Each structure stands twice: as structure tokens, then as C-alpha cells.
Amino acid sequence: MSHDLHDLQWSSFGVDAAAVRFVSAMDGAEVADDAEGDEAEVAEGAWDDAPVVAVARLSPDDLVATERLHARLAEALGLPSYYGANWDALLDVLTDDAVLGDRRAFVLILDRGEEAFARAPHAVGDLIAIVLDADRRWRSHGRADMVQLLIVWRRADRRCIALEGTDATG
Fold first, then answer.
1. pTM summary value
2. φ and ψ of 148, to 5 deg
3. What is the tens place of the pLDDT at every residue in 11-65?
4. Among 76, 121, 143, 157, which one is least packed by beta carbons within 10 Å?
5. Contact call for residues 54 and 107 (beta carbons, < 8 A)
6. How far apart are the first and last CA of the chain?
7. Spatial contact of 39 and 89, defined as CB atoms under 8 Å apart
8. What's residue 158's pLDDT?
9. How far apart are CA 168 and CA 152, in angstroms?
10. Quick one: which H or E segment has residue 137?
11. What's the per-residue H, E or C state across 92-130?
């Protein structure tokens, strides 16, 4: 399953409804700190019965080696032992209510986006396509924002560039 970035429709609207967003390094760090803080507070019992966000921070090094990427995702997101460590299995677990459990969403953060695109363009394309497919599946069941991919860009501008998958009918 190899996806090319040219198969994706680019739009530039800065709303949170987009499953894949390019954010500045400052915005990416702030989002990661907030999400990881939520996880820590729940683990410490600061919130009773509060839903948590599962966060996986990925580096360009993770995307260069597929085995490493899937091992990193499994560890960071707490994926089940039966996770198949491939793209199809990733889509399956990201859209499985049983895997999601009490968490309110999966958030993937790809640090150093420019480097990741340069070193592993096919893996980045595959990851984007998986997140978009997962988002479409959740939305088809009336649930939005269940999976997000933030690609951290060093560029300092504050615009978000959002990606939406093209619809086969349109």
C-alpha cells in the first residue's frame, strides 16, 4: 500500500476538523506537551474517569525503517500484542473501538517534517493516507477527530495547512 502525496488534495483552512495538519515547531511542541500532560495527570489520578489521548511522537529516523516505525507506534500508543506491524494492521487498530478503549483519540506527531519528507517520502505518504482513511472510517460512524497526525514544520509561520483525502466520487 504505497500512497503518493500527489493523490492527496491540499487545502489551506486552519480548522481542527482536518486529520492531518502541518504546524510550526512551536505549535507542535505545545500540542505535544498538552497531550502528554493529560496522560500524566490521568496516570497520577488527577482526573477521575477522564478520557486520555494516546500520543506517539515520531522522528524521521522512525519512518526510515518500517520495523522501527511500527515498534514505536505499538509502544507509544499501547497497541495490543496482536498488532501486525504493517500499514493495514495500523489502519485496523486506529479504527478499533476496543483498542481505543477509554481514550478519546490517537494523536501522532511527526517531528522535523521537512527531514521526514526528504528521507522517507513513501513512508510519510503511507502514514498520511492511513490517518486520512482512519479519520474517514470514524466519521462514517459519526465520530470526528478520533485520529490526528501533526507534522511539525520548522517554518515559523502560524498557518496550519490541512490535508483532506480526495473523494473517489468527486
1. 0.72
2. -135, 145
3. 333 334 478 887 877 555 555 555 555 444 434 444 445 458 899 999 999 999 9
4. 157
5. yes
6. 22
7. no
8. 40
9. 28
10. helix 121-140
11. HHHCCHHHHCCCCEEEEEECCHHHHHHHCHHHHHHHHHH
- The C-alpha atoms of residue 108 and residue 57 are separated, in whole angstroms, by 6
Burial class (CB in 10 A: 0-12, 13-18, 19+), 114: middle
Mean pLDDT of the chain: 75
Gap between the Cα atoms of 153 and 112, Å rounded: 6
Residue showing cell 476496543: 98
Tell me the sheet residues that pair with 22. Answer: 151, 161
In order of their start, the domains of the chain are 5-165 (3.30.370.10)
Would you call 35 helix, strand, or coil by DSSP? helix
The amino acid that residue 12 corresponds to is: S
Query: How does DSSP classify residue 21?
Result: E
Report the pLDDT averaged over residues 88-113: 92
pLDDT at 9 over 70: no
User: Are 103 and 53 in contact, with CB atoms under 8 Å apart?
Assistant: yes
Is 56 buried (19+), middle (13-18) or exposed (0-12) by CB count in 10 A? Answer: buried
Which pLDDT does position 94 carry in this prediction? 96
Q: What pLDDT was estimated at residue 73?
A: 96
